[in-house]
Design brief:
Elements (H helix, E strand, L loop, with lengths): L1 E2 L2 E5 L1 H9 L14 H11 L11 E6 L2 H7 L5 H9 L2 E8 L6 H4 L6 H4 L3 H25 L3 E5 L4 H8 L5 E10 L15 H4 L4
Antiparallel strand pairs: 1-2, 3-4, 4-6, 5-6
Helix pairs in contact: 1-7, 2-7
Cofactor: FMN
EC number: 1.-.-.-
Enzyme class: oxidoreductase
């Protein structure tokens, strides 16, 4: 919905859902997230921009008890309980062979040749744009009414061995997804002022 005061700006409720009132959750209501919602989530995030439409982000949605049992030993102790309680944990990954799909994703030039044999460019492009897509996932999830708990605090090598072995995918960070318990949120941490963090030149 657009704000009546400015037809180019989302209304206050939408901005609150995406940013101002959105919180990082560690406690979850007993409410599942169905596969159709996860499909909608991906179908939203894939529309956001990546370099040369490279789309290197890959996403492993950990839902089953068996998969959670594989994930738990990869987590730092402080992240285990909240992750095991979350309906879904997304392993946000990037694919180091993303450029193989460029002939279909970016068909108007031979973009694959930009990357073939250039390992530094492959790693940088995959990591940067896969990270962007992880951020898009958070916003898409919030837009669909889900709450998020993004985090580091795990062993990437263990996650890669448990979930990505034999692939060209590599883990980046995790996002717990579900419906957070608003009654268990701590006070919001402060955010820095524009003038402390930004420059207009």
């Amino acid at each position: 919905m657009l704000d009546d005061r400015d037809p180019t700006t989302l209304d206050a409720d939408a901005l609150d859902r995406l940013f101002n009132a959105a919180r990082t959750h560690a406690h979850w209501l007993d409410r599942p997230v169905d596969d159709a919602t996860l499909t909608r989530l991906y179908d939203l995030l894939k529309m956001a921009p990546t370099s040369a439409n490279s789309q290197p982000g890959r996403f492993v949605f950990v839902k089953s008890q068996a998969a959670k049992a594989r994930l738990e030993p990869c987590l730092m102790e402080g992240n285990r309980a909240k992750t095991m309680a979350a309906p879904v944990t997304v392993i946000v990954c990037h694919d180091l062979a993303f450029y193989e799909k460029l002939p279909s994703l970016f068909p108007h030039t031979d973009a694959r040749r930009w990357f073939e044999g250039n390992d530094d460019l492959i790693r940088t492009t995959a990591f940067r744009n896969g990270t962007l897509q992880g951020a898009y996932l958070i916003l898409a999830a919030r837009a669909l009414g889900l709450d998020c708990g993004p985090m580091s605090g795990f062993d990437n090598a263990k996650v890669d061995a448990a979930f990505l072995e034999g692939t060209t995918w590599r883990s980046n960070f995790l996002v717990n997804l579900g419906y957070g318990d608003p009654d268990r949120l701590p006070p919001r941490a402060p955010r820095p002022a524009f003038e402390d963090m930004c420059r207009i030149v």
